[in-house]
Write a structure and sequence with these properties.
This protein is an alpha/beta fold. It is built from 16 helices and 14 strands. It starts with a strand and ends with a helix.
Amino acid sequence: MQKKFILVINCGSSSLKFSLINPVSSETVLTGLAEQLFSDEASIKLKLENKVIEKQIHAPHTHNIAIEILVQQLTELNFQEQIFAIGHRVVHGGEKYNLPTLINNEVKQTIDKLSRLAPLHNPANLTGINACEKVFDNLPQVAVFDTAFHQSIPSKAFIYGLPYELYEEHAIRRYGFHGTSHYFVASQAAEFINKPIESCNFISAHLGNGCSITAIKDGKSIDTSLGFTPNEGVMMGTRSGDVDSGIIFYLVNQLGYSTEEVNKMVNSKSGLLGISGMSNDCRTLEEAMTGEPNCRATLALTVFSYRVAKMIASYTASLTDLDGIIFTGGIGENSMFIRSSILSHLTLLNFTVDEDKNKQARFGNKGKITTDSSRSCWVIPTNEEFVIAQQTQTLLSSTLSTKTVGQ
């Protein structure tokens, strides 16, 4: 049986997202999610064409058990023998990794060391890698790092205005995230305008519960809004984004907050949720604006749109030319209101939304949403899983035999 699929694994602290992809044809034949792991409500769902398979995950409710159930289902569906590699999303690669990397013990040790820079993500990613090794012990595994695309950022963009020793001794600098997403949509936009990616200049806005803006020059990231952690930059679903650092000291020293409380506040209780007081979901807030409008919901979306527009405008300082703006991510792909609001702040840069095109570009539809006389702006659904599969295939094709990678 021909081995033609890559299993893509995105392991969270209490979840396991997976896709089975043919990297040559780009066909995704199966997707799924195991969620609420480590609880009695743990479950796993697989989607195959029009078929949905759901199962409860029994004690001990771990990633290992979830992957064992996944393997069992893949075997029953006659897919397991067709898998030739595993591609893992790993959030933080530090300064060490700027390319997809074949996983070995040294790589795992480095991912573990980098957990201090991504304590919520890298340990979970490593858990997924170890769990897959137990059941796919004969298959190569590849790490694709979220930070890799941003390793081209120059020092003027990644160095903070702090004592330089903090960078030299503790690697405190801007790293950026969502790199796989920005890479994918930039490549797609390059196809739209029929230019090689190496000649393209974009500003990419990945807007979801987490948000980041990236300036892309000649196909490479040269600045990005997420920094040392995923809390810097624009306001997000539950994250504050940029705040005056003095507020942190005021909360601790004057109002008696603990550092743990402040950390939870700026990461989990701020952003759209914090301002609106009702939800971090853009859809809920937009609904609250209709009829008798909720003032705080309106304020939250107004602040969000303005902050994103301001960040986009600031990134023109990084570029000498601009082919256009890209919207992606859950909000960027689906909220015509947010897109229109953001572009309304950018008329000085010659962006004018075409409301009919903007309305059409939702729920998986992609395309240009600005008028013919405007500078271009596109909606492009992201596909990080395909990028991981594609980059895994490319790496293995260059390092392993044709027989091994199943071509």
